[in-house]
UniProtKB/TrEMBL annotation:
UniProt superkingdom: Bacteria
Residues that span the membrane, as ranges: none
Gene Ontology biological-process entries: cAMP biosynthetic process; intracellular signal transduction
Protein's name in the database: Guanylate cyclase domain-containing protein
Pfam families assigned: Guanylate_cyc
InterPro entries reported in the protein's UniProt record: A/G_cyclase, Adenylyl/Guanylyl_Cyclase_3/4, Nucleotide_cyclase, TPR-like_helical_dom_sf
Amino acid sequence: MKTFRRLAAILAADVAGYSRLMGADEDGTLAAVEELRERILLPKADDFSGRLFKSMGDGFLFEFSSILAAMRFAIAVQLELNKWNMTRHAACPIELRMGLNIGDVIVRGEDLFGDAVNIAARLEAIADPGGVCISEAAKQQLGDRIQLAVEDLGERALKNIENPVRAYRVRSAAARRPVSAEAIKEPPPDDPAFDLRYCDFSSERPSLAILPFRNMSTTQDSEFVAQGISLGLQTLLVQLPNMFFVNACGHAGYRDATVTASQALAHMPVRYAVEGSVQQAGSKVRVNVQVTDLKENTVKWASNYDRNLDNIFALQDEIARNIAGALSVELIGGHMARDFTGGLDGSDSWEHFLRGINYFYRMTKADHAQAVPHFESLATAHPNSAIGPCYLSVMHFYAARRGWSSDANATLAEAEKWARRALTLEDGNNGLGHSVLGAIALEQHRHRDANRLCHIAVGYRASCPFAHSQLGITETYIGEPKNGIRNIRSAIALRLAGPMPLELGALAVAYRDNGDFDLSIAAAEEAIRMAPEYLDAYVTRTSDFALRDDIQKAQQSSEIILSIKPDFRISDYVERQPYQTTEMRKRIATALQKVGLPD
């Protein structure tokens, strides 16, 4: 057979965790990989004039005539795969690792050989699930023809490749998780402070904070309109996987005009700020919005809108689109990931939504009680919209978990009822119901369901602290604490107002289970500082001290446990920890027994 050489861009792709997926569900995994090939890979290859020249079960090799086409193919596939995973009813998402290289290849029939192919395959092996690694040659050829944020991985010795290859991790190819594992830095060894708000956001996507919109109306009662519009924008922007979004809507100093945008966000390394003002006159509203580049101190985009309040949902969607366009953020399929306010109409819908969302985000027992009737009214008036059920599910979940209800079990049942209703509705489904059902499934020890639902929720809500924290908690309890740490860190980074005690407590558990006892103690103590009666944080800290054989400190910590809950029993505590296996429960029980806590 005749052979010859030509220049080609080679992309290698492999299903991450294939053996684990096959062990859990062989038939389902085989069917999913075949669907992936036929539904996503082959059509996308055609879109970018590429071809599949070799398939090896869970591995695929593609050829492209240009490196730019290959890179665009990689990004398109990862985004499409992210959307596809949302629709699948499987315990774990299907994720691809990709490697990209360019060079001379040996052509023999339809097959390709040579170092250019082998390097792409080796780069794929070191890529993150959902990510892409590229060679130095690929990076140079791409140049500035496509805007990419890359991380230099240094020179790598690749198997069966004679010389080391400099590799780069592309940090904007997919959006399963909006923050890298390094999004929140570890505290320096010589610094005892545990400052979780010191974040290191990469430049992989535009980082954006939305500040509270100022009420310019003559009446204070219009405050809910101003804040409701900014919070409504938040519900849209958290869906965008190509944007890193943090919420600053609660910044009272900025709302009261005592600080500027730059001062309000001085300690958060976000690049852009969304500012706005609202003036209401009867059924009319004027909204002024601008996006400020904090680094350059320039206005990136500004506009004003005069609308009827009945059209407030269309206005929020229009503003969100314009913000995304101003920051060159690609909208999947040309529109928002979900038409969040789809299905809402009627003269009083806007008031129920804006008032309800105002109360909801204040995160207090009294305000949640005020929010519930507004979303119940929306659910009744608009039975085909998921907006009311989504928010009702998470509000009842919070009430049950934070002790805001006299009957936690009944309230949790209400949360589950509304969440299940939300999942049956397409219009307005924003993923909150998936997070709630995932959390409930975890407590019921339905670990596969919990993992699947929480991954879907993050797919819907790329910048949502609640979705990421629930995914991180689930990953910790199914035996993946390193992934749990990453997602709980992401949740904390996304919550501009600072971490919540429950998130810190979950982070402490993940650190402990990963063997990082010092970091676990620091997280637990920060949670205790914020919530002095937070029993679980004391238990985690006590087990940390015992596991690192600091018995004196462990005993001191255990005394506080008994002062808070005199009838504390180790068996009761470990029984309600929803671990997938008994090994971690036994380890915790043994640690607590070492300090004399009652069985």
